[in-house]
Structure formats: structure tokens, C-alpha cells
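C-alpha cells for Alanine racemase. Go.
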Amino acid sequence: MKTSSFRNTYAQISLQALKENAASFKASLQSPACSLMAVVKGDGYGHGAIVAARSALSGGADYLGVAILDEAIELRDAGIEAPILVLGYTSPHALREAISRNITLTVFSTDVRDALLEMASEAESPIKVHIKTETGMGRVGVQTKEELLDVITPLYQHNNIEVEGIFTHFAEADNLQSTYTDEQFARFLSFIEAIEEVDMNVPIKHCCNSAGTLFHKDKHLDMVRVGISLYGLRPDVSLEFPIELTQAMRLFSSIVSLRKLPEGSSISYGRTHKLSSEKVVATMPIGYADGLSRALSNKGFVTLHGQKAPILGRVCMDQTMIDVTHIPDAALGDHVEFPIDEMAELTGTINYEIVCAVSKRVPRYYEEKYS
């Protein structure tokens, strides 16, 4: 992750916002015994995994979550010693590396189960695992009680394996009109009941993502997993936060060219925009190689001096043009901001994708608070 650059395009990230967001979630949990997992996969949703993890831990997070083993190793290599759960699949050939670094593994398949059983005896300390159950996401996880018992029983019985957790994932916890989350929760509870009936007690039961944590407090159980809203972004832009959270990332570029162009001038590749009258056109050094979606061509906008300036023509790989005719004090070097939620709405996607797409060539500048 670049933290210095000669560029006029950058992401500004508030470490204080990340810390305070974690603290706000921690304070909102249904029970003081409930743990908070900060999910820092996807390079901390584009914010930087290491700094996001450290900020969340300083704000009260108890556990870290990542998608793949490589992400967990990055955190360990940075000296982070907090518990880390790999939420996705880890191949049998990679298990020894995870075990050697005290990384908790998700198990839902017999190949991983069998590989862990083979190597458990040689492990220096108990191997921690969480069992993933499928309750309606259609992605991964054991699907039946019989499959659950087949996967979990030999792991639970091994004296050098600790089945620390069992979990599922909600598909539409951000849809407050739907009963599907309640249905998924009931299925999850039935899985828990199935293992408890045979005297297997798993200490950490978890199912809530950001939306679940915010809007389904009755389902917090032993731990919640907070991802997108740790970064101050709403899981659905139609929802208002019920707790105080601050957006941590802001994306900026600046004006490097300012020119008056006559009526009829065409802008950018394919000449998809022709000026209907004389306009003042500004160019910014940001494009789709930086993660700015080409779908914003001719319909996105930036904010400059408190006003919207529309994108003209196609977003190029490295540059984008805007109309600043109505902003008379626009000047070379002025900073413009790209509104994250609005970009998501205009391109038919979600804010998760916008922040994750900000490419590695865009430097991240970390500040305690926004200036």
C-alpha cells in the first residue's frame, strides 16, 4: 500500500474514525460477553489491512477476520498477534503454514478435515477451527445436520484440535422488510442444537455481519463480524445508522488543466460528449487504472467548492474531465472529491466495490482526523 507519492490523486483515511467506529460497535453489542470481529479482508476494504486491523483493535475489537490465508499471513508478518480467522477455504497444502502462525481456520469440507486430522498430532499447540454452516447464502458450508456431524465430530474428539467456533452468513440482513434473516437464524440454531444434543459445546457462535449487527441485535450470540460498516459505510444506502459511525475514506483528485472550449467541442475517447455551448473544462489525473469506474462516463460527478461538477465524456485510463463552467472560482490545483455512495448508485453497484477498487497506485494518506 503506497503511503507517499508525487501524485495529485489520493485517498485520505482517518485512523481515528476506524478506532471510534470499532468502539461504537463494541458499545452497541447486546451483551458485554459478545466479542467483536473486525473484518479486514480485501486489504481492509481498500483502506489498508494492517492499519485497519491495528485501529480496530485499539478501538476494542477482539478478533480479526480475513478471506484468505495470504491476508492472515500479512497481518502476522506485521506483528499483529490478535486472533485471526480465515473465513474462506484454505487448501490442505497450506494448512501447516496457517497452523505454524496460529491462524484459525474455517472448515466445511472433508478434505480439509482429514488433512487437519493427519497433521494435528505434530502441531505444537491446539489447532483452532470454526465450522461453517450453509443456511441460505448458497455459497459454502455444511448443508445438513448429518454433514455437520460428519465434519465436526472427529475434529472435536481430537485432543490437539479446538473447535472454537461455528458460524453462518446472512444473505440479506440489510433488507429490514424480509423475514429471510429470521429463517436463516432458525436454521443456524438448529445446527447448534444438533451438536449440543451429542454433548459438543462450541464456545463462539456467530452469524451477524454489519447489517446483522446493526439491525438484528437479538442475533448477536457470542461474536459479531463487522466489515463494511467498520469503515463508516452503510450496508445499504437506504438505511440510516442506528449508532454513531464515521466514513473513514475520502477519495480526492485535483485540477491539473483548466481550459475554455467552444460549442461543439468533443470530449474524450469516442467523442461521446459534445459541448452544447462554450464550457470551462477541467482535467483531473485519475482514471479507471486508479479504480474510477468507466461506468461513470457522462453521468458521474465530483464535488468542488461545495458544488457538483459533472463528468464529461468517457473516463480514461489515467485522466477524467469535468464541467466547471458554473464554478467561477475553480482554479488549477483545486482538490475535488469523489462521493463514494453516489458513485456506487450511479454505476449500479455497492460502496463495498467502490472502496475495494481503489487501486494500489493511489496513495493512502493516514490521519488521526480529517483536516
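Residues 344 and 350 are 5 Å apart (CA to CA).
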